[in-house]
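Sample entry (335 residues):
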Amino acid sequence: MINIILFVIILVNIFIFYYFNKISEIVNLYDFPNKKLKIHKTKTSLIGGSIIIINIFLVFFLNLLFKSEFLSFFPSFKNELIFLAMLSIFFMLGFLDDKFNINPNKKFFFLIIISVLFIVLDQNLLIQKFSLSFYKSKIFLDNYSFIFSVFCILILINAMNFYDGINGQSLIFFLITFSYLLIVSEKIEFYLFIISILFFLLFLNLRNRLFLGDNGIYTLTIILSTSLIYEHNFYGSITFADEIFLLLFLPGLDLLRLTILRLMKKNNPFYGDRNHIHHLLIKKYSLIKTNIILFILAIVPILFFNILKLNFFLVIFIFLIFYSVIILKLNKYGS
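Predicted structure, serialized as tokens:
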């Protein structure tokens, strides 16, 4: 049974790869260069989210057909249905934004509404308490749990949206985070499935055939945020909240830096510019070197915390020094 499901999944993805250009034409979603924020040379397909959605729903329907739980992540069928419904809504919002360039303020409002609905429907996503590595007692959020849960999802969505910018960058970061979850979790098959999709997308992305777009970023971020909260809340594979914080520290820190810079310049923080860390790096280094630097920066906090067993605040201090030195040197180079 499992062999049949795997065979169908592989066959479908071979079909997607072989007929990639035709599928892109049917979906008709492209990113066009504008010589401002988008400096790629030709129009590029934005069906990253579509490929992820196809694979996720394919597994769901194959499991229904064969009465299997292969690659299943959620504790109940109801939780899985809620996730698929909300994932589709997040995907569609990203798709429409890629297609029609939705006003950032309106888009943020929609993200809030969808996130609230998601948590209302699935109480497993409600973060009511958490532990910190440097504090003995559990922290109970009580009346603030709902607001905090929505805040966490929104911050991650916006951080990953800000972080996306050059070929390979976002997909490599998602590979890091899901690989980490693969190591700590018992849901090995599920994370291997997600990682396989990411490698497929990365191959297309590095060949300049595909961008994730907002539809891809939203889709992957919702899968990641759901996974992180479930692993912490429900499965207990992640003990400390600061473990998640360090895992996501790089995009979060760049989001904070860019937001402060834009506010200081009296600009809307949701409108793009070319001050992202990847923009600064790509001015001086090649695409490969830029992605290597970003890869190292992404894994350093969690490696220092888990492998070297450094104190959380010491990890933050060391990383902030590295990050600040890099940003200052890159700004000096670009000035």
